[in-house]
Amino acid sequence: MNIEIKKSYDELSRFAALEIKKLIDEKPNCVLGLATGSTPIGLYKELVKLHKEGEIDFSKITTFNLDEYRGLDGDHNQSYRYFMDDNLFNHINIDKNNTFVPNGVAQDVDDECKKYEELMEEKGGVDIQVLGIGVNGHIGFNEPNKHLYMDTHIEDLTDETISSNLRFFSSREEMPTQAITMGIGSIMKAKRIILLISGKNKADIVAKLFSGKITTELPASILQIHNNCTVVLDEEAASLLNK
Ligand code: PGA
């Protein structure tokens, strides 16, 4: 893994945006793998800014999001489809028909997962996958467990994830307990991965991530064997790493 430590969240976001711009300059019809959560919001702001400055043309871009809550449709203001429209797609010249987020209300979930996987393949695979990390080490919604899944699948959210994301919902009852998520195999197939980690609350998991072990109990640890993965940390997230 390549490690980039940035002074601030803004610098981290800017760095990631410029890496994506570089890829789009080289390959205007590339496929981006995108993430939700608080971490990539700064990246999306930078991408919108670069687009408004005439620096990035998204007209030929395809995107695949990592995951979606089971039970929320795209109009729900906490769905990840809504998040992506609101934070990025509504502000750039992307064709929304080329933006894919798993359908959280699909009747046949197995079929939805299989089709999502096939579609990624059909579009040539993901060129850059953006990732965040949960405080428990999850990537996408691949939660710590005795085993991890290869492909897009339905996942039960852990109590830790539910507690961590509860802040976005008005009550625990409203918070979904499952999600459709790309699997570890789907993520590892990306040609390049950029893992963004910001803030003091991630410092513990960062220290564990760089302990040299690979374990399903820390799903992000598998990224250590990806041959083109860059971890971008701000100083707070990196604060417990040995210099
Ligand atoms: P966060 O979520 O960016 O809101 O911290 C990251 C994640 O759970 O993957």
Automatic annotation (TrEMBL):
<comment type="similarity">
    <text>Belongs to the glucosamine/galactosamine-6-phosphate isomerase family. NagB subfamily.</text>
</comment>
<protein>
    <recommendedName>
        <fullName>Glucosamine-6-phosphate deaminase</fullName>
        <ecNumber>3.5.99.6</ecNumber>
    </recommendedName>
</protein>
<dbReference type="Pfam" id="PF01182">
    <property type="entry name" value="Glucosamine_iso"/>
</dbReference>
<comment type="pathway">
    <text>Amino-sugar metabolism; N-acetylneuraminate degradation; D-fructose 6-phosphate from N-acetylneuraminate: step 5/5.</text>
</comment>
<keyword id="KW-0119">Carbohydrate metabolism</keyword>
<dbReference type="InterPro" id="IPR004547">
    <property type="entry name" value="Glucosamine6P_isomerase"/>
</dbReference>
<feature type="active site" description="Proton acceptor; for ring-opening step">
    <location>
        <position position="138"/>
    </location>
</feature>
<dbReference type="InterPro" id="IPR018321">
    <property type="entry name" value="Glucosamine6P_isomerase_CS"/>
</dbReference>
<feature type="active site" description="Proton acceptor; for enolization step">
    <location>
        <position position="67"/>
    </location>
</feature>
<comment type="function">
    <text>Catalyzes the reversible isomerization-deamination of glucosamine 6-phosphate (GlcN6P) to form fructose 6-phosphate (Fru6P) and ammonium ion.</text>
</comment>
<feature type="active site" description="For ring-opening step">
    <location>
        <position position="136"/>
    </location>
</feature>
<keyword id="KW-0378">Hydrolase</keyword>
<feature type="domain" description="Glucosamine/galactosamine-6-phosphate isomerase">
    <location>
        <begin position="10"/>
        <end position="229"/>
    </location>
</feature>
<feature type="active site" description="For ring-opening step">
    <location>
        <position position="143"/>
    </location>
</feature>
<dbReference type="InterPro" id="IPR006148">
    <property type="entry name" value="Glc/Gal-6P_isomerase"/>
</dbReference>
<dbReference type="GO" id="GO:0004342">
    <property type="term" value="F:glucosamine-6-phosphate deaminase activity"/>
</dbReference>
